Amino acid sequence: MPSSSRVLRTAICGTMGAVLTGSVCIAPAHAQPSPPRTGFETSHGARWTSEAEETDFLATVDKASPRIAIDRIGTTAQGRPLRLVRIGAATAPADPAHATRNTMLLICSQHGDEPSGREACLSTVRRLAYARDSATRHFLERTNVLVVPTANPDGRAAGTRTNSQTIDINRDHIELTSAEARTMAAVIRDWAPDTVYDLHEYTPTAPYYRKDVLTLWPRNLNTADTVHHEGRTLSNSYVRPRAVAAGYSVGDYGIWTDPETGEPIKQTAGDDQERILRNTLGAKNSVGLLVETRAEALTDEEEADPALNNRRRVLSHLASLDGAFDYVKERRGRIEAATTAARLAGYADRGPVYFGGADNDPAEESEILQDPPCGYRLDAAQYGEVTDELALHGVRVRPDSGSGGGVLVTLRQSARALVPLLLDERAAYHLTTGRPADHC
């Protein structure tokens, strides 16, 4: 498929009635009608795309391309729409376990004050919608590409990290207290995406934390080994090399490095919390990756020209996204084998569950449930409080005749590791305290 960064440069030329030839914008004698542009592109990066411009942009793309369908999948507390763009995808499979296509999900700008990921997603939607090359057509014949272009519309409008209820959405993927996290949980449940790519931005800490692009896979120890391996492969063998090839520096998110030796000296973030999307994805057996691009200007030129800084923020995301698309194209079989094996392993109901620890921080003995119960019993009142959340997580329950209208939640299911994280009192963010069952 064409390079995302070149596509954006072409779009910027298009706003001037010109075409990109080499690295130069040249005005043709008879300019042809061009695809729609975002507010970011028409301003050459001087401002971010507004809500109204996004709505118009998506409507135009939807109308122009038969590959595209746009669903309103939720509503924020302030009444703004949460949208899912489906590219090459008809409807969610009746049974995701037997889906005939690989599914890739992009979640853009969960934090409202991190706008560059949203801009990268919007231009990616247009690129896939209008592409005429055979490689893109073939890719979309075999791949469902799903995009949540603005995961936090209220935060975007206010310029805040949190949503309008002051909830950090990326810390809400277990408890599901926000409309935004609930909506994303439903998409993940219904589509069971093989790969989920989560776009963010960060503010550097000089001199230790100044890379252009930082990535991180699920560190939570409940991630199956096969899925964990694929997450690291996506990061280190695809996303980072494409960013480096485009001229950007790369590193691990949450790890300060010595500016002279490059050696890690301090971990400041990137922990194992199961409520963070990339870790929730690991427990749900999807290959997940967090990608953070540098928001702050670190050159004199970017300090003098905010639009230049903004364009670099978006272009670095687009270069990284090229790596993600290459990953899905080249490792399709391995990805599907990894996610399928992890989902089937849950039915075997074997192995420990972890309430702490990470792939670079071994769990303490007290954080390991070495011999998990076969399930958890919830009485009627408890189940009434968490019915919706369990359903959104895709957790299956069955009536429990011995608990007066309650239910039994067995571990013998696809999202096996998720059950104790939701129902065991030792889990940091559990929904309720279930009663361990010895016989199921």
TrEMBL record:
It comes from Streptomyces coffeae. Residues 47-321 form the Peptidase M14 domain. Its cofactor is Zn(2+). Coiled coil: none annotated. Gene3D superfamilies: Zn peptidases (3.40.630.10). The keyword Zinc applies. SUPFAM superfamilies: Zn-dependent exopeptidases (SSF53187). It comes from the Bacteria. Residues 1-31 form the signal peptide. Keywords: Hydrolase, Metalloprotease, Protease, Signal, Zinc. This is M14 family metallocarboxypeptidase. The active site is at 292 (proton donor/acceptor). Belongs to the peptidase M14 family.
